[in-house]
Batch of 2 targets.
Target 1
Amino acid sequence: MTKSRLEAFSDGVFAIVITLLILDVRFPADKPLTWETLRRVTPHLWAFALSFVIVGVYWVSHHNMLHFIKQVDRQLLWLNLALLLLIVLIPFPAALLGQHPDSELAVMLYGVNLMLVNAAGTAMWLYAMSQPHLAADGIAAALPGFVAKLHSAPIVVYGAAIALAHWYVPLGLILFAAVPAFFILPNPFIDRRLRAAMGASHAQK
Amino acid sequence: MTKSRLEAFSDGVFAIVITLLILDVRFPADKPLTWETLRRVTPHLWAFALSFVIVGVYWVSHHNMLHFIKQVDRQLLWLNLALLLLIVLIPFPAALLGQHPDSELAVMLYGVNLMLVNAAGTAMWLYAMSQPHLAADGIAAALPGFVAKLHSAPIVVYGAAIALAHWYVPLGLILFAAVPAFFILPNPFIDRRLRAAMGASHAQK
Amino acid sequence: MTKSRLEAFSDGVFAIVITLLILDVRFPADKPLTWETLRRVTPHLWAFALSFVIVGVYWVSHHNMLHFIKQVDRQLLWLNLALLLLIVLIPFPAALLGQHPDSELAVMLYGVNLMLVNAAGTAMWLYAMSQPHLAADGIAAALPGFVAKLHSAPIVVYGAAIALAHWYVPLGLILFAAVPAFFILPNPFIDRRLRAAMGASHAQK
Amino acid sequence: MTKSRLEAFSDGVFAIVITLLILDVRFPADKPLTWETLRRVTPHLWAFALSFVIVGVYWVSHHNMLHFIKQVDRQLLWLNLALLLLIVLIPFPAALLGQHPDSELAVMLYGVNLMLVNAAGTAMWLYAMSQPHLAADGIAAALPGFVAKLHSAPIVVYGAAIALAHWYVPLGLILFAAVPAFFILPNPFIDRRLRAAMGASHAQK
């Protein structure tokens, strides 16, 4: 399996998941269309937008990880498929969140799905970095650990979101949204540390 | 993120959205199939065809934009994902339009979605053109402004469509259809201006 | 628009359509699963298999057409999108055929969809061949006409299928299946004529 | 048809099938969300995970097969489409298994689908290996037979799973899961034999 095949296949799965999310934004066929009835679709729209952005961030991280991996072996292939399985799962708790926006249980399932994705991503990264024949050449010593922290830190945040949702559900949802915002908004903290951690040869991604 | 990865991912999303639109053209399972009952599917068919063509035009514009962009940075990546989010949203108001073809509200939601797509596309274009390290070399001075006008002009037309639909819904739908027709039909106005605005090095796209 | 982008996008749409067809093969959620109840799914399975094979043949023909086209212009791009629109439509009459396997109307709609696909394919091919800057170099004089006949001949067969279905529906379905069989099964008639019609430079596809 | 086009198209179909599987994991819209009601989704989740892994293994095998094939002809193209048809079918018995996890009939249909996939894969492989203009150069004499055994052995296991399910359904499901586990888990038996069977020139895949 070449790296580019793996990348193309994974990109395909990401593109399909991110698009399928819209299938849960549905207006009931038997209702008249008014502002009033439309309001029921709102939580589905939020669940869609949140999940789209989260899957988008995962796609970018996946791409960034593979940038530092020069080759794919059997183990990495299956770790990648395990990661994709968890990504493909996201539309299920996303639909639950759209149907039951006030449910602590829906927040929990959504959060657990995201935690598993981040755990699988971290495992895949750490495995690749531990194998000299897989990791790209000239990676600075500090990079593997720093990226592993970036991948695993959200696990703690999602855990906190689940805990806060027990108290007040919208707080959990806000924390979910905070994670992609942290990665999307210009972030001098990450940029500086990442640049420091990166070998010169990989500065341009 | 290389430009070609971004392009391939975006193309995948466009291809999936354009195909998923057919999922809303459904005949009710419990009805006998006659010309009479089939007539209920007609608005769904129109909404499908209109949306297919509109998404097709967006795909071509997206491709044309990227032709003048040589590199992708973090900001452009997220602007592109924001654009894709709005593209992925289109099947939702398209389904509403198919279900409620006489509803002013459906026309409005559809129009607002399209306006947002054009606004996001214009923003992405203007951002890329404002960054010398992203814009392709040798772009004629007049091109960025001309293309920005091409991308933002439909916003006005869609606004007019919404206003006219308040009066008489089919007028709004006709205006929606007029926008892709303007871009698809041989258009000496655009061709001449575009050729004038383009640098010689980009004449062949 | 380069030819390879157009090809990749079209391939994506073909791959999605051919896969979405399975979504219509559904067992009702509220029925016990027995051989008896399962029998209701059979027409959906046939409609799926027939449509899968037909779309597969269209995919191969599309690929073969593009083999003789070296460049894409604006007109060809939109002709190609028109062809894709009709391909994307196929799951709709396919679902009708699965729901109403005995309906002459379902056979007719299915047949009309296929006729339109072949007409659009023929138009796209004839346009490309009429433009010296689009057609590949060294195409033998006889090729354009021969391929146009291959693309348009099924229109007559589908028309006959519709006419026969008026009499006895299964006859129409058998004719539908005969067309892909003609293209898939080893066919010395086509092979010999195609080899004769092809320029030596294109003998290897 | 070049090999890379066939590969890209097949990869697209695999990526879509593997992702569509999630569409069957649905929580009923009219039920309150509790641990109790959620339990009904569990069999759908298992059917999803099992099918995801099985399709994943098929994707990897398909890729590995194509590694030893240097060219594609008409016959191979249609054998590949027949294989894809059977892959695209998988979500149907997978949905049945999710709906009726205790049904011997569901296990049987699922198993028959998988048997057909393995039979089609074996046929495609044996055909390619029998044609000197298709098989890659320098393939060791022992490879075709060994890979054919790897592809056809699961047919026996799936048959046994169906037979055991007649007795006790979960035994059948466990055997289904055993097949991908055998291919995914580090497997010194396969590795050693495969290395022995492979020509030196293909040792790196």
Target 2
Amino acid sequence: MLSALELARGLEAGTLSLDDLYERVAERIAEREDEIGAFVNYDLETARADAGRASGPLRGLPLGVKDNIDTGDRPSEYGSPIHAGHRPAVDAAIVALARRAGGAILGKTVTTEFAFFEPGRTRNPHNLEHTPGGSSSGSAAGVAAGFFPLALGTQTGGSVVRPASFCGVAGFKPSFGRLPTVGLKFFSWSLDTLGLFGKGVADVAFGAGALAGRDWRIDGASHGTPHLGFLEPQPWAQADDDMLEAFERARSLALRAGAKVSSVSLPPVFREAFAAHQTIQDYEATRALAAEVDMAAERISPKLRKTLEDGAAISAEDYDAAQETALAARRACAEAMATLDALVTPSAPGAAPFGLASTGSSVFNRLWTLMGVPAVNVPGLVAGNGLPLGIQVLAPFGRDRSALRAASILETAFANG
Amino acid sequence: MLSALELARGLEAGTLSLDDLYERVAERIAEREDEIGAFVNYDLETARADAGRASGPLRGLPLGVKDNIDTGDRPSEYGSPIHAGHRPAVDAAIVALARRAGGAILGKTVTTEFAFFEPGRTRNPHNLEHTPGGSSSGSAAGVAAGFFPLALGTQTGGSVVRPASFCGVAGFKPSFGRLPTVGLKFFSWSLDTLGLFGKGVADVAFGAGALAGRDWRIDGASHGTPHLGFLEPQPWAQADDDMLEAFERARSLALRAGAKVSSVSLPPVFREAFAAHQTIQDYEATRALAAEVDMAAERISPKLRKTLEDGAAISAEDYDAAQETALAARRACAEAMATLDALVTPSAPGAAPFGLASTGSSVFNRLWTLMGVPAVNVPGLVAGNGLPLGIQVLAPFGRDRSALRAASILETAFANG
């Protein structure tokens, strides 16, 4: 894998040249892209040329951009045959900001259909018979395969944290609204959140901070001894034995690293909020994709069509009530986290499931997307079958750096453990 | 002017034919479009054909769609030369919903540049030397001129309520999020809100309810005697003598109509919130239009370029603080309105100003856009120079029908007064 921070430092110090970097990337892609299928399209030549003209913190680093995010200079197909060959007029805001920060767009990465559940062709670099997770499949797999040091993804349910966990990379979903979603193909406007994939926690902190224009960097700083709340099992999200073991291991390693550790359970409003996520998502998706349904319903997968039909049956009253529940839960969330630096949960029910027909479950992520709080997948643990397992770190809304710091402490503890 | 409700009833009863309706519209456009300039483009033939196939509550009614809202079957230029001739791949969600409800898209209406302050070519139908208001200039003017019974607009500052007031039509900005903004050219994602123009309050209630899939109709119902709070003058928004007189007249007429009337003043947090609106808007606009700035800054008006430069200088900390202020003010807003059915304020500082170089001021609207509460312009009063004056009715978040009912009572009182 490529560390964005290390590459940026090498480029700055002159110990690495852009030619060397892009050659290395080209080799990795030539070796593995055929079997992994991370890209919808890529263009090494254009990226190398853009990198040569780039300045800013990202210094010409090649970036993967999930294909539900508009790019003005190449197709943006949203994982749907309805939009095959579609060329947006302009870059999405986040792509423009990435270019301003010095990033070079290497390619568009595979998304599930409209960033929902119908898989694309991407395979897990750790075992090609397993899903890479979704919906940001290509971005997570491409970072894991060393195709690019950073990649943009989006999360509506668990589409950043889950594929990061399955692919053994760091994933960071900042607080809702911190990265602009203008130019995203929306699925659920109350939930769709941009996120970033990288090798390690410090890499995504560095990259996301450069995009957000915020001081999120955590490299080189001492993180002290945080107060971490380990979440008690929730009735709606069952972890498998591998994950339960990893979670306990994370707790021991955190203690050993000097963190203060508590067990935290959530008040009942969160159970309602978990259900409210789906009500809000499906109600909004039915409207967000109304044009596609009316124009080309037959080119929408049966899985998504069913969701959109279900969404159409949700009443305005139920939607409003779900939004009210979300609001109440956000207040409860702030209270539940008030004395903590971060909350720790599994990133997913277990390691990447076998097979490519499903991208796995987002039950461990949906609630936190709805809460709008920063979420980080900490890589570094391993399941019995050798596949990666991730631990999810959450912090109060707006305290993104607190989440990143706590995640970094766990990451170091895993590496030393 | 055309009443959407009357037309829909006529079409249902068979006392009006689509041919008659579209002929009448064609005549009005032939008479006045040259001098008013409400449209960027229109297509009577396509609209008539669409209307013939339409079913649903809107029954083939011709609609105006502000040109910052995507249409898949015709250009969407966002009021900017950068996007001249741009053809989106699909309809915006609200356009798809309008078609589902039976509406026929007659044309795209003039917006100021990216729905900010640089005017388009539209003139006020009541006096061609005066601005129609903005940014939804063509939608407001086109309803006033009888080109269409309903038109879509958007409001980030005061772009629905203000032009409705200047053009003497009803304008309705529902609670934030009630109409989907997917497929809108965003300027400020925390503020951009869809709204509707029509002849009277019952017309916009009927139209917006059909789009939202909500029971917002108020025609045929008795509205009782509401408790209306008339807002004390606010330091940030000075009305002229015409408007002060109209506001007092509205109070007397409301009392005479049997409403309970109180004077309401706002706690200090609203002053901060008024300032927060601009911080949030400019910070977000700088990001929403990042691609346009980087691609074609020279084709952005000096006025907007200045705003985007100012926005780029706003720190993340100031933006976050403004969002915190907005959140606190929303809670205070709910409290301030808790015992009221609606709050009443001027819609604008006065009647439409002379000249076309400015679309007037949104000082009476920005705070309420930020609060996300439903806002209605009630037409029917007149300034000394004969131009229309509107009164703004607001209700607590989510109580859209309460705002519409109170607005309807005032509208009737004005008509009877």
